[in-house]
Amino acid sequence: MLNKKIFQDNALKFTPAREQLWSLFQDKAKPMSYEDIKDFISMDKATFYRNMSILEEKNLINSFESSDKKRYYEIDNNPHAHFICRICGEIRCLDIDMSSILSDVEIDNVIIYGKCEKCKKEDFI
Amino acid sequence: MLNKKIFQDNALKFTPAREQLWSLFQDKAKPMSYEDIKDFISMDKATFYRNMSILEEKNLINSFESSDKKRYYEIDNNPHAHFICRICGEIRCLDIDMSSILSDVEIDNVIIYGKCEKCKKEDFI
DNA sequence: CTCTATGCAAAAACTTTGCAGGGAT
DNA sequence: ATCCCTGCAAAGTTTTTGCATAGAG
Question: Which of B67, B98, B101, B80 is nearest to A108 (CA)?
């Protein structure tokens, strides 16, 4: 089984918790926090956070913290920048080439905060 | 006095705490957290945070949260992006125009996370 | 069988809030 | 005199840690 192989290749035991997390994050193509998925997984939050840290160390998962103080995780395929609306909290994935922005450093995350189109309009209401 | 006028123009009382904060953030041209300045101010942390929030509402101060979970503040003059090294925590102010990257939204903060030049080198030691 | 993974509960870290007293205008 | 400001202490929120038990290989 493919999922199992991914874990074994990384010297990680193939446990139910990890299988759940892995398939959930593969199905949803968006960043999600513990809060977002807690009702869809059956494991303690400590297990969630510990496993996500491990998967991140193995470069299988990326994460960033939003302005809502929560950490969002997503599968590491095709790294990209994120736009976060500080009004409604919407997180939008962006397809910007980050490497060209800045030389001499190794960029692994770009977060752009602002007001999304919708919230910008509602300012005038 | 200029400082006093700035506060009065914004319907804020000119108190010792605010005067301290304002001159400190004007002198230092870098983002600073409560931790960074607590030894140089004589006020409770609640007063610090409350005043910084107020100054931010009045658009006199900008802030962002770093990967160390601390909120950094700086004077609102000349808004700019920041690079934060996730290894050593260094915060570098950047002079990039991000507005062109993304349309339809109102950008007010850009944070680029990565590994700074120094920490990148030390990886190989 | 051995070593890693998990659940539970408590700790940690930074920021915010409630409240009562003090100070500016 | 009236509000706003401040200090203190306690609460709040998300993530992390310690420890005993369970489970994968």
Answer: B67
* 20-79 in chain A: CB under 8 A from chain B: 64-65, 67, 69
Q: How far away is chain B from the Cα of A16, in angstroms, using its nearest Cα?
A: 31
Of A107, A27, A5, A42, the residue nearest B85 (C-alpha): A107
First to last CA, chain B: 54
Percent of chain A beyond pLDDT 90? 78
Q: Give me the residues paired with residue A73 across strands.
A: A32, A63
DSSP H helices in chain B = 2-9, 16-27, 34-37, 45-57, 117-122
| Residue spans of chain B under pLDDT 50 | none
pLDDT digits (tens, 9 = 90+) for B45-81: 999 999 999 999 999 999 999 999 999 999 988 889 9
Band of residue A72 on the pLDDT scale cut at 50, 70, 90: very high
Give the three-state DSSP class for B57: helix
pLDDT at B125: 61
Cα separation, A36 vs A51, whole angstroms: 16
Give chain B's length: 125
Tell me the CA–C1' distance in angstroms for A69 and D12: 13
| Residue A11, nucleotide of least CA–C1' distance | C4
Query: Positive or negative, the Cα torsion across B67, B72, B76, B82?
Result: negative
